[in-house]
Amino acid sequence: MKIAFAAWQFWALLSAAFAALTAIFAKVGIEGINSDFATFIRTIVILGALAAIISATGQWQPLNQISQKSWIFLVLSGLATGASWICYFRALQMGEAAKVQPIDKLSVVLVALFSVTFLGESLSLLHWLGIALVATGAVVLAL
Description:
single chain; 143 residues; 2 domains
């Protein structure tokens, strides 16, 4: 079991499971509330939970030891995350979770394209086939 905790695949599967629960819980939770305000509440909960985890595990770091490059890209990532959450909650409020979520998961396809374009990563033909299947599946599920 110790090996499972050290594998990225384990954490990626947990991420997928929690993302699925997020969609279901959010769909029920946003009934009768503005989607932007719901995102705000969700963000406060996340901040509190992360502060508790970082405190409990002693992972706080001095802010002045973070490089300027890291600051810039973490701020950009935070802005992108916020925009994603706002759009996601709005879509969830307007549409069915089973149709919104597959379109949201087109991010898998976009990450592949962006990682090749901007990070210089390379993907095999088999990976591209998988990406094409994900894209096709997301579109089919959303119809």
